[in-house]
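Deviations from the work plan: none for this task. Representative record:
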Amino acid sequence: MLMPKSGFLLLLCLCSTFALFAQQNISGKIKDAVNGRPIPGVTVRVPNTNRGTISDATGLYTLAVPTGTSTLVVSYTGYKTRTIKLTPTTSVLDLTLEEDFARLDEVVVTGLATNVKRSNLANAVATISNRQLNGVAPAQTFDAALNGKVPGALITSNSGAPGGGISVKMRGITSVFGNSQPLYVVDGVFFNNSSIPAGLNDVTGAATAGNPNNQDNPSSRIADLNPADIENIEILKGASAAAMYGAKAAAGVIIITTKKGKAGKTKISVNQELGFVKVRHLMGVRRFTAETAADLAGTADNPDPAVQAKRDAYKAQFNTAQSAGKIFDYEKEMYGETGQVLNTGISLSGGGEKTTFFLSGNRRQEEGIVKNTGYFNNSVRMNIDHKLSDRISLGVTTNYIYSSSDRGLTNNDNNGVTYGVALSSTPDFVDLHPNALGEYPRNPFAASNPLETRDKMNNNEQTNRFVGGTNLEIHLQQSDHSTTRFVGRGGVDYYNYKTAALFPRDLQFEENGLQGHSIQGNTNNINTNIGGFLVNTFTPNNNVSLTSTAGATLETGYMDNIVTAATNLVSGQSNLDASANTTTRQFRQKYRDNGLFIQEDLSLIDAITLSGGLRFDRSTNNGEYKKYYVFPKGSFSWNIAKMKFWNVSGVNNLKLRAAYGQSGNVPPYSSKFTGMLGSNIGGYPGVLVDNLQGNPDIKPERQTEFETGLDISVMDGRISLEASYYNKKIYDVLLRHALPGSTGYASEWKNSGDLKNQGIELGLTLIPVNTPNLKWSSTINWWRNRSKVTKLTIPAYAIGAFGNSLGTFYLEQGQPATQIKGIVGGALKLIGNSEPKFQMSFFNELTIYKNFSLRFLIHWKKGGDNINLTQLLTDAGATSFDYDDIVNGTKVGAYRPGAGDASIYVQDASYVRIREIGLYYNVPLKNTNTIKGIRFGVSANNFFTWTNYVGYDPEVSNFGSNTITTSQSRGSNGLSTGVDVTPFPASKRASFHVGLDF
Amino acid sequence: MKKYFSIIILSLLIISCQKGEINSLNTPVVGGIITDPTRSDLFNLLTGAESGMRNNFGTYLDGTGIIGREIYRFSGAEPRFTTDLLGGGTKLLDNNTFYITNPWGSRYQVIRQCFILLDAIKNTRTEVASDAQKKAFTGLAKTLIGYQLLLNINMTDSNGARIPVPNGATLGPVITNPAVVMDSVLKFLDEGKTDLTGSEVIFPLSDGFAGFKDAAGLLKFNRALAARVNIYRKDWASALTALNESFFDLNGVLTTGVYNSFSTNGGDLANTMYLAPNGNGEVRVAHPSFVTNIVAGDDRINKTSLRTSSASQSGLTGNRDLTVWSSLNSPISIIRNEELILIYAEAKIQTNSFPDAIVALNRIRTAHNLPVYAGAITSAALITELLYNRRYSLFMEGHRWIDVRRYNLLGTLPVDRTGDDVWARYPLPQNESNI
């Protein structure tokens, strides 16, 4: 009986407050102040109520306001918000809006349920609008679209394999073995971004020797999100901004808001993209001669008759191949395909005064640059907002995604089976092509014939995912000086992830070995989050506003991953039971985190903002699972230009700001246990102590961040500068630190040191030209970060990649966390640093004659070293393109691997890249009723790169970034990006776009 | 309106008040298994220890075999088999990479497992296992500790190793005198012997222990290992004593002994030392000196097979595949009678009982299709003959490099490329020195 009763109560409340008022009708047209074009979608609202409307496609609006309303607020993203005084007689109100070049009126989310105008913001929060995301050159997946757009972030694509996989590091090294990747929040739902390995290690053995970390290169789940659905992205880079997300926010928070419907006529948009992908860069291969072919067997002066016989054989083989014209470039054959891109999106949005909706469907099909690879994504979204009354509004977002990617077999391996490793030792004079019967020759130079592997194997990942969220907002109380809202938010993110890797028994490396692998994984993952917040805004007078928030949140997660590997397959079969042997592994993880928080925001004369908050968090992943950890935050901003005494007319914004905050990073699941792993022999079940020692006292990492900055905009916002400095410290860093092997453990979980990241971020926005016929806007960002291990309570240790002789990341007190050490001349020396010296991006948008727009983004990463083991492998396999160059009297390809100098393979991975370039044309339409808009465009994505780096691409990571740790395999860590081991080469893309609006 | 507040507050409280710890969902945890273990717990622990001995044992055999110039290991994916391990160019052995850290860690991991088993036995009620039954567990655990430690000191030699300590005890220093570490190995073996004597075995062992699954068998296994340690310690008399308590049988089957068993069955480990003959890319070929140094007619040449086409990498070529193991299911020996006969021969030579030694050497020679020994009857000549037989009889079972080092003959190993080196020992792993 509770609900009806309260419903009635609610109705009563509403009636008493609003129903008695008479109404006044207002209508008008809204235009752009410079070019006079009508602006559709502008919100016209009665302040502090839900009453409002939106202008239609021709800029017209009508709104019934209660009599006695004295002001209206008119706002639209990208334009300055206006507050209009109303007189009781106003009925026609035409308006012009000025573009908000400095985006001062943009509303930025700063708390879990509160937000603030950018002009009063205390942090440098990066926002990316829909236009920047989709209007230039669409990336294959959402994650790739961020690259170059976020000052303070180091974003690295892990590989070029279809389906994405990206590492995002905000403001340096946040965590080494804890979560180093940001939290993604989509419409209030915590969006899982795990990478779950497919069990390819059974075939590649990649993690069996030099490095125990998984190298399966799985896609990351954030790639599922359809970029076309996104309205806006806000990026909270560190604890000072993200403290209200508590123990999940350490690596930053990426808040994604999807599109919502707007009241008015139903709008239908259809967008079609047609394009192609090609490899960005090929390294090239060595051209053999009869003599160099012979050298593969040993030197000419080798006395061993076997060597001489083999030399003659190679020489003969080369000559035969050459005279038959059978010299091949296998790199080109493998990676040189042109893939087709088809992307179709359709969206419907509209609604009435009470209910609005946004419905979209998207289908993306993309072939890879390697045969039999590709990516396919279907997604459907339905967002509905409903006003139950003037006081209660409800928003529901739902998203179903199906994605499937065929990712081939790349990256490191120890069995010579991946494409790249096989190619690295395959010379150009051997013929690997199938005969007329389709039989592939055995590759005498490698364990596998990469063409055969490519044509017969399959490595598919399939995701079925549902993400749904609800947002309930109730205006509980309203008076002249005080409003109180309740915001309730909940969400579910569920996916089933199916991996299937099939290696038929007749492959070269299977026929005499395990005779076929069928490895199938099935993962069910569910994350939920729910929270409730009470927000009171108290406005005693026009100069003071006080917002108080209190809330509680709960997040849970459960993952169940089952992988079965079948070997010795029945010929031609892939089912797990069509095999002689099967092994099944299961890994489950579960957590429950909850938090409580309070926050107080004070705004004085719209110029000074003071904010403070406290958050209490606990997690079942902590050693003390009942203990609440406290994370405070505080911030201050002073917009001097808004003060009464300010009379410098050219400067419209001059803001000093400072913010401090703390956040945590919970330990990974199971870090508090020392497991006993399955280890059977002779049919008896056994358990063997894990070499990773758990720690029952494990606690979260604590991050404190201080950020300060100066924002200034002059000439009516046509020049604005945002400058920030931050000092981010991480205490009690969670380390899986090395123990002496003689303990029986390789490593132990321990909170064992402190890190520091200091950096500078500069953003300059310019509008050099702003005329009705030409508008040019330009954004230049420059940023840098320096990390340092300030304290290490354990001995310095190497944390990967593949040992000291090949260069390894090395944690050492007083040194950068990202330093790379290696053996040079017998001693362990500093040989590099994976952190860039600085990064810079340059975004330009030119609008010509209203209807043409040209946009491009240039990204410059200066410095930052990679460990280039692709080159090592091609040297060892004697196939490097420059193998025969002479250095110090020896061939460089022979010199490099034997020089005993790890610094040779630690190489500068600087680049300048035109990430995106797009030219779009809006067809001017007159007097059409059905078609409202037509757009054409061409775009190119990552098409031009300038770099001295020798690999396929300077952006690479053999270890992925977010790969989960299971009982049997170690996941990614926060440092090891930039390790290059025969990756899936990166691709570039060019597309043609057509868009229609109805 | 107050009602609203109370509903909201109530729901907030519900949200923030869920309780209960989330325990390990995937595996037993160490702390749990050692408190009041059941019989199955004990069996699982012992099986885990037996199983764990195989982890990275292949890397040990590869490494010692490559440095000892028994084989080449060609790998498209791992160049360090032909660079670091052969000392290619100016390369040195890396103290922080797989060829040392992986086997090293796995041996100590088994040792840790054995200490966990010892702790579990301490907390075992007599209803679960009687004292005699417990003794069998502890006896084998201590035997395995000794054996695993021996393998590690074999690798690092005078770069040292640490004496393993029970759970919770403070780690001792790195002992750089290998003789002291060997003494400790022997001590563990002797303690194992004491426990095994008069014990009763209730636990299962894989068929790698076939014939040795009872207390008497395990005792013989223990003493066989002790004999090996004693010849390393040059304690010839004790070696002979240990041999007499082992399964040493001068006229017995050479392959009798204890093995690591492998299988491709689910959950088990395959023998990755097996690579199909005539494979490419991933190859183990005999070092060319294997065939040039073998005496004509010696049937031990059949531990390799001639390839249809020789294999090359990094300027090295080999034309005989390693065929000591014939499949992924083949067992790898831990210790077997052939070695015991050679230990007997060695101890006899060293104690100047040449006739006894020659009997043993002839037993090996004739078994391998060679005529009886006709060389000089001097200590030096017999040792040369002994080392020849150890080289070919125990080919790729992890002995040659250690043998030539014991007799200061590392300089006699062939060096194939300019700049290559013959390493005397592995470096101590970095994680042992950074402490």
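Chain B has a mean pLDDT of 92.
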